[in-house]
Structure formats: C-alpha cells, structure tokens
TrEMBL record:
Cofactor detail note: Binds 1 zinc ion per subunit.
The protein, known as: NAD-dependent protein deacylase
Keyword Ribonucleoprotein carried by entry: no
Keywords associated with the record: Metal-binding, Mitochondrion, NAD, Transferase, Zinc
Binding site for NAD(+): 58-78, 139-142, 256-258, 282-284, 300
Recorded family membership: Belongs to the sirtuin family. Class II subfamily.
This protein's record includes keyword Ribosomal protein: no
Entry EC number(s): 2.3.1.-
Domain Deacetylase sirtuin-type: 33-310
Pfam families, A to Z: SIR2
PROSITE patterns noted in UniProt: SIRTUIN
Length: 310
C-alpha cells in the first residue's frame, strides 16, 4: 500500500551524526535538523527490500563536498548572487560569451577540479560493489561519482572534466585544455570569485577581453565543455538508455535533488507510471514529492552513512 509521504517525515528524536565533512563545506549545505530515527528505519527498509535499486542524484549530494547548488534556499547560487548559468544558445552564437565562459572556467578549474567525493558518494559506490545498486543517474557535472569509483553510472548532463569539439565531435580531457590555456595566456591573471556548480567563477568583463581560447587541434572547431547547458536537451540515446535501466529496476531512490529540471524529473514520472516505488532523500521540497511513498528530510552523507550501520 502506498502511504502518503507526509506521514513519514515526523521529526522526533534526533540521531547521532556519523559523517563529518570539513567545516568550510557546511556554508553550501542548507540548514537542516538531524533526520529522525523512524524515517531512517523506513529508508533502511526501503533500500534493504530492493535488489535492483535505481538511484538518481543531484546537486544536494555535492554541497557536502563544498560545491554550491543553484536552488537551495539562502545558500544556493540563485539566492546568493544575481548570476545565472550559461545558456546553450548564447554559448553557440557568441564568441565573446565563449571567451568569458572559458576565462572564468580557467580560473575556477584548479579549485573546482580538486573537490573530492563525500561519504554519500562512497556509500553509493559500495552499493554498486555489493550488487544492490542497479544503475545510478546523476544530474551533477562534477565527476565526483567517477572519482568515488562508480561504474554503473550515467552522467545525464555530461561532465565538466571532458571537452567536446562542436566541429568533429572529438572528446578530450579538460585537464589538457587547462595546459593549453596556460600556454596561450602566460601573463593573464584574474582573481577567482565564488565557484558555481558548473565550475564557472565571476570575473569582471575587462579582465576577460585579453583571454585567448584555443580551437580544436584536429578540425579548428569550437570547444565546449561536454555538459548540457541550460536550454539544451539531453541526447535521445542517453534518455532511452536510462529509461531501459529504470525499467529493469525494482525501486527508485532520489538523493539530493529538487528534481526541478525536467530531464531528471521525467524518470520519476516513468517510475510512477510503472508502479516502481519511489523514495526521496532531500533537505527541501521536490517536484516529485507527490509521487514518493517515502520522503526523508536530511543531509545525504549523514543519512546514507547511518544506513550502513542499521
Ligand atoms: Zn574538432
């Protein structure tokens, strides 16, 4: 029987925290009291019953690694700044926009690329090792699941650690592009500001004017991060692949996503239509709360690390 999720999110006795991340990280994690014991037990039961678990993750997972999300109340980028992410059409049509994007990305890269997986990523990777996890879909572009060793993984919106040529479709490592930037811009300096979820940082336009951006070595085409910018769509082959993995699954767990973007939300609609039970672990409300049989309010790393112990 499907229970209304609101009845399962009562906050009673707080449980002890077991996942401690660096203090600086917490500035990007929304305020949240510890998850209550009954919710944890229900979540444990949900995960334990599954033999082919489908997990979908979002920015809420990476805030505990020090990467801010866009939408969290008070601490997300939308709340803290008036900056908005790069739009696909703008990147394609405007050389100046590309120059600004890459200049900021160049400055932010050393810090952005150094972020490490947190205990939530590690727990999900262990579920893969133990055979419980059937497939993991992430909306994040930060490579933290890969860094944790996750193999049964689809990066729905791509990954900032890869670069794609819009001319020949060639894929190269973002780290290699960093060395080309350095070679082309030996005396260019800029002070990095806050780093966005996609690795963007904030630099004044005057500083950007002299930044040189290389083209593809093979065809001279435009280089773009291998990520789906806002306004672009996820490849149909990727969507079909994920739908197939979902159809093979027996339960869906959402971890750290508000599911506001349709590219991820559509899989919750599909799961609901196929009567695949859904549980959501997130601090804030999500677009799919009404589809879930269980909603657990809490920090991803803290809650998932407690599950192992139950
Ligand atoms: Zn090319």
């Amino acid at each position: 029987m499907r229970l209304p999720w609101r009845t399962l999110t009562l906050h009673t006795a707080p449980v002890r925290r077991t996942c401690s991340e660096p203090a600086a990280v917490s500035s990007f994690v929304p305020a949240c009291s510890s998850t209550d014991g009954p919710s944890l037990e229900l979540l444990q039961d949900f995960v334990s019953r599954s033999r082919r678990l489908f997990v979908i993750t979002g920015a809420g997972l990476s805030t505990e690694s020090g990467i801010p999300d866009y939408r969290s109340e008070g601490v997300g980028l939308y709340a803290r700044t008036d900056r908005r992410p790069m739009q696909h059409a703008e990147f394609i049509r405007s050389a100046k926009s590309r120059q600004r994007y890459w200049a900021r990305n160049f400055v932010g890269w050393p810090q952005f690329s150094s972020h490490q997986p947190n205990c939530a990523h590690r727990v999900l990777q262990r579920w893969e090792d133990s055979g419980r996890l059937h497939w993991l879909v992430t909306q994040n572009v930060d490579a933290l699941h890969s860094k944790a060793g996750q193999k049964k993984l689809t990066e729905l919106h791509g990954c900032t650690h890869r670069v794609m040529c819009l001319g020949c479709g060639g894929i190269s490592a973002r780290e290699d592009l960093q060395r080309k930037f350095e070679a082309l811009n030996p005396s260019w300096r800029a002070q990095a500001g806050a780093v966005a979820p996609d690795g963007d940082v904030f630099i004044e336009d005057e500083q950007v004017l002299h930044f040189r951006v290389p083209s593809c070595n093979d065809c001279g085409g435009i280089l773009k991060p291998d990520v789906t910018f806002f306004g672009d769509t996820v490849k149909k082959t990727t969507v079909h692949f994920v739908h197939d993995r979902l159809a093979e699954s027996d339960a869906v767990l959402v971890v750290g996503s508000s599911l506001q973007v349709y590219s991820g939300y559509r899989f919750l609609l599909a799961a609901s239509e196929s009567k695949i039970p859904i549980t959501i672990l997130n601090i804030g409300t999500t677009r799919a709360d009404h589809l879930a049989e269980l909603k657990v309010i809490g920090r991803c790393g803290e809650v998932l690390s407690l599950l192992q112990r139950l």
